[in-house]
Structures are given as C-alpha cells and as structure tokens.
Amino acid sequence: MTRSRLFVLAGPTAVGKGTVAAAMREQHPEVYLSVSATTRPPRPGEVDGVHYHFVDDATFDAMIADDELLEWATVHGVHRYGTPRAGVEAALAAGRPAMLEIDLQGARQVRRTMPDAVFVFLKPPSWEELVRRLVGRGTETEEERERRLATAKLELAAESEFDVTIINREVNAAVQELVALMIGSSAP
C-alpha cells in the first residue's frame, strides 16, 4: 500500500470505529492513523498518545487558535475532539496513506477542507447490535448512553453523505474491506 490519500472513517457511536482503527494500526502500520485530541478523560485502558491525546480545555483552545486542527467538534454536547493537522499532512507528503477515525461533524468539516479524501461510513449490522455494543462496553452512565443513542440515530441518517459504506459485522472483515478500498482507490 503506497498511495498517498486520505481516508476518513466515521459512523455512529459504538459502531466500532476505534476497534477497527486499532486493528488497522496493528495489521497495517504503513497506514498513518491520526490520533485525535480530546478534552474527555481517558476510559479504563486508554493510553495518552496512543488512543487519544488527552488535553485540557486551555490546550484545546490554543490548538484551535493556532490552526493546529484539521477539524474539531463538541461531541454529545460534552467533550471536544479534534484531528491534529501536522501528522496527517506529513504522512501524505511522505507518500503514505492516512486515515482519520472521527465523528460525523468532523467528517463534514474535512469534506469541506479536503474534498479529495475518501469518506467511509462504518455501519452496524443492526440497531440492536449497536445498542448491545454501547451497553456492553460499560463506560458510560445511563444518561450518557441515552444521549449517545439519540445522536446515533441522527448519525445513521447521514450514511448517504459518504462515498462508501462498510458494515462492521466483524472487525477483521471490516479492516480487510477498508484495506481493499485503500489499495484499489483511484476514485471516487
């Protein structure tokens, strides 16, 4: 895989974006996978600089002011997430494919600034499976789960905004579909 192209992976909460991205990182280290910055606290097992760059509000504000983010958004009305610009631009300049794992708001911003990127919608096999995954990870309060599920309904409705849809039935199969897309991508 040597194509220098940006791939944007987005989809509803709990669809498995992070799991697919982690598997991609492990199986295909040649793909630059952006690590987002966030103002939310780490979940159990998350490592700063690997899963996210965990920053405070003042640092995030400075990143915005200094134009260090390709995109940023407030997600679920609570915490901010953003994609640091420097690593993505360096990877593409070096001829590496790059992938962003971001939310719908971020994908829309990137579409405006980098319209040549390939936008991939990761979709759950069913609504029931999405709910099962969200509840099963046990990292949110009941109130936060309800807020995330309400947001997920809106996010699922945005599928038509994307170039390609991959159904995340099984992580390695989703990764292989994404890799096939990266290898064969000269369009859309």
TrEMBL record:
Entry's Gene Ontology molecular function annotations: ATP binding; GMP kinase activity
Listed EC numbers: 2.7.4.8
Binding site for ATP: G11, P12, T13, A14, V15, G16, K17, G18
Primary location group: cytoplasm
ATP-binding found in the keyword field: yes
Cellular compartments annotated: Cytoplasm
Family per similarity comment: Belongs to the guanylate kinase family.
HAMAP family: Guanylate_kinase
Protein name: Guanylate kinase
Species of the source: Nocardioides faecalis
Organismal lineage: Bacteria, Bacillati, Actinomycetota, Actinomycetes, Propionibacteriales
Gene: gmk
